[in-house]
Design goal:
By secondary structure, the protein is mainly alpha-helical. The chain is 61% helix and 5% strand. The chain binds arginine.
């Protein structure tokens, strides 16, 4: 018997079923069901024999799922119903007791929490791998100057190590965001909230929380089944991390052009052209550049789903999964690709050094020299701007401009190419500071992310 006299319309069935994507949650679903069965027996709701039959059946279900032998059925709406249906086929009517004191609403929130926790931990590991690769690359390029850019115009020289370390600090912040997701966003167990209003059995939620590794139980059953903040938090952390990677990808694209020639990308991360035999395209770096907006889109989509949604569970919330899964896969691939490219990139020290020896990028240093002699900075800025204009108009280095302002000290400043080492401020470009920063980055990476 059932509530329904008519079968589902095939289009509704297609729209409603989530099995095509949520089967990915089977490991978490089984973990949750095991903990639930053990707790029900401990609470006296199931006998120990019933518990053992359920646990044995769940092990067989797990084997089938792992081996790809699980017989999914036409009628399985989602992974939760598929597991329970198969369990009952395998162990008989006792299988129907597993869903005592539980709803798919607290079940799915628990499964997705477990999934997010594992994936946040995985993201942290991959971020650490990439950060370590960048640190190693920075260490190999401590003494390679290149122009630092603003507006993609040569601005002031820096060492390549300094530039690469900028990405390490971004990644360390990403790691903090994922640590928050792992340790805080999913700290509270939804299971035990029932459909929305708790359950009619004396269950032990603390016991389930301990088995599944939750620090606390969710204190409000209504919030527990309505909450998807943890998915939003994961997506936000992933979107920001991918935005960082997009900037790295972009710089690799620009730097590997013949115009810049700062870097040669490894063949393993490049492709050829179908028509132009000479081409070596930085496709991997371009794709790295392009991945962020898609995950930002997933974040926006889920905000759209959750926005103005009345409490408690609504089927809308099933739309949390595809964005989440795609974000997880995209982030994993992007971090691996970024690491591979950083490890294989070959930087052209001479091209970089040559670009950095353009004496126009010492303009600020000449101005600073006048300031040190007492001239207001604005006035110095104007004078040096005039010298630069003349150099550019005549197409000569700044050092070749005839001017009373370019006295001996100023000229020697231009010829020494010492503009980099003179900036000995904390976090700045001088060698000693970059070495200091390298050590600090190494230390930060070796320590766990701050709580
Ligand atoms: N497949 C559903 C989801 O992912 C599971 C929860 C269904 N609950 C319900 N009351 N229909 O959201």
């Amino acid at each position: 018997m059932s509530r329904f006299a008519e079968p589902q319309h095939p289009h509704f069935r297609r729209m409603n079923t989530s099995l095509g994507f949520d089967r990915r949650l089977w490991p978490q679903d089984l973990a949750g069901s095991r903990a639930h069965a053990r707790m029900l027996a401990a609470a006296g709701v199931l006998t120990e024999a019933e518990r053992d039959e359920l646990l044995h059946g769940l092990t067989r279900v797990e084997e089938e799922l792992r081996d790809g032998a699980f017989p999914f059925a036409e009628d399985d709406e989602d992974i939760h119903m598929a597991v329970e249906r198969r369990l009952t086929e395998l162990v008989g009517p006792v299988g129907g007791k597993l869903h005592t004191a539980r709803s798919r609403n607290d079940q799915v929130a628990t499964d997705v929490s477990l999934f997010v926790r594992e994936e946040a931990a995985a993201a942290i590991e991959r971020i650490e791998g990439l950060a370590a690769a960048l640190i190693a690359c920075a260490e190999r390029h401590l003494d390679v100057p290149l122009p630092g850019y603003t507006h993609l115009q040569r601005a002031q020289p820096v060492y390549l190590a300094h530039h690469l370390l900028a990405y390490v600090w971004m990644l360390l912040r990403d790691r903090e965001r994922f640590a928050f997701v792992r340790d805080r966003s999913v700290a509270r167990l939804p299971l035990g909230a029932g459909a929305l209003a708790g359950v009619n059995f004396a269950t032990d939620r603390r016991m389930v929380a301990d088995e599944l590794g939750f620090a606390e139980v969710a204190p409000n059953s209504i919030d527990a089944v309505s909450n998807r903040d943890f998915v939003l938090d994961y997506l936000a952390a992933a979107a920001t991390c991918l935005t960082h990677l997009s900037r790295l990808g972009s710089e690799l694209v620009i730097w590997s052009s013949s115009e810049f020639g700062f870097v040669r990308m490894p063949d393993a991360w490049s492709s050829g052209s179908s028509i132009m035999p000479q081409k070596k395209n930085p496709d991997a770096a371009e794709l790295l550049r392009a991945k962020a907006p898609r995950v930002v889109g997933h974040l926006t989509a889920l905000h759209g789903v959750m926005h103005a949604l009345p409490l408690t569970y609504n089927k809308d919330m099933q739309e949390d999964k595809e964005p989440l899964f795609d974000a997880v896969d995209t982030l994993e691939l992007a971090l691996a690709a970024a690491q591979g490219m950083v490890e294989g990139a070959v930087f052209d020290r001479d091209r970089m050094a040559q670009a950095a020896s353009d004496d126009l990028i010492a303009a600020t240093d000449i101005a600073d020299l006048y300031v040190k002699r007492g001239m207001p900075f604005r006035e110095a800025h104007g004078i040096v701007g005039g010298l630069v204009r003349e150099a550019v108009e005549r197409g000569v280095p700044l050092a070749d401009v005839e001017s009373e302002h370019l006295d001996e000290e100023a000229r020697s400043l231009l010829s020494q190419a010492s503009w980099l080492e003179s900036k000995d401020s904390v976090g700045g470009p001088a060698s000693g500071r970059v070495r200091e920063q390298l050590a600090a980055a190494r230390e930060a990476l070796a320590a766990p992310p701050p709580p």
